[in-house]
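Protein modeling request. Please complete all fields; requests missing the sequence field cannot be processed.
Requester role: graduate student
Desired output: 3D structure, token encoding
Chains: 1
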Amino acid sequence: MVQITRGGLLSSGMWRVRCVVVCGGLVLAQIPLASCNHVSTINGNSAAANANMSPAHQDQVSLKAKVEALENQPLGPASLGSASPFESANVTEIIAEGEKAVPFLVEALKQENKPVLVGYAAYCLRRIKTDKGKEPALRLYKKLYKSRSRLRGEEPFAFNQLTLYLIDISAVPADMKPPGLRQR
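Delivered output (184 residues):
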């Protein structure tokens, strides 16, 4: 529900119109309410606020927000000290967007201080099957590789997902391959 405040005087003070909006700005009901208080409740994501934004731009803004939300995504079960990704609806939608999501995922790989976001970005890029995140992934992988015995919190998740991503795109440096891959 989106409330749109309109200025106008009644004998009792200001009035506002409350609109119920459903998908695409369709107004289902307008109920005038008398009120002495003038309160703005316009939602920045409402159809009225986005009227000047093209649908393609709205999709990009929405996709960027979904990628940024990966930072708060719960992790799946842990094995050998590293959690696995949790395949939520948000993760599935990002992967389904494919190449459209790649620029936002590559930017997410650059957020070194957000290991959950980095881990999910690497996971999504691996599932999308693109190597476009190679450079930022390699840069962070090398940093984490040096301190791999001292990784804390969600860092093992990020390191594990970066490793899997780099293995899939054949970009793990020869001198930094995980023990099981060195003989290949």
